[in-house]
Amino acid sequence: MASGTARATEDIASKIAAIQHDMADTINVISEIRGVIDMISDFRSSISSAVEEQYATTAEIVRVTQVSSTESHAIATAIPFDGEAAAATNTASINAASTADAFSKKLAQELTSLIGRFGGSSTAPSQSSTVGNHSALRAQKGPKRDRFGQGPSRAGRSTANFSGSRSSKR
Q1: pLDDT tens digits, residue range 68-79?
Q2: What whole-number distance in Å separates Cα of residue 102 and Cα of residue 3?
Q3: 59 partner at 20 to 30 Å CA-CA among 74, 87, 91, 94?
Q4: Which of 141, 127, 170, 148 minimizes the C-alpha distance to 159?
């Protein structure tokens, strides 16, 4: 009987050891499950924060769109007044250009008259040839010299090219 009791005690001890081993494995698995649940909770929090930010951004986009719409309507309503102002400005600029043109023609006539008094040609050059004549006179005289006798090649100097053409930009 002693040997049967010893065997039974060994059997019980091995079964207890197996249960303890299984219990340790179960605790490890439960810890891993707990880690997965914590990760899922963190993801849920991150997703919730992102949804809140997206909602706030969408609300701001809606607000800005409404303000833009209101201001665009105000601008569109005000355009006829700006159109009137633009038309008045255009008329004024046309009048100014016309006055400047008339003044330049009168000045050319007076200068031609003065040149005639001093023995020069009495015919007025056309506006388009005035600049060209200036370039031709400049070419005949040679390059302009400064007070030191230096020509246009001196540092910081350049010669302007007057072609007589007007710029189309205004």
Answers
A1: 888 887 877 776
A2: 139
A3: 74
A4: 141
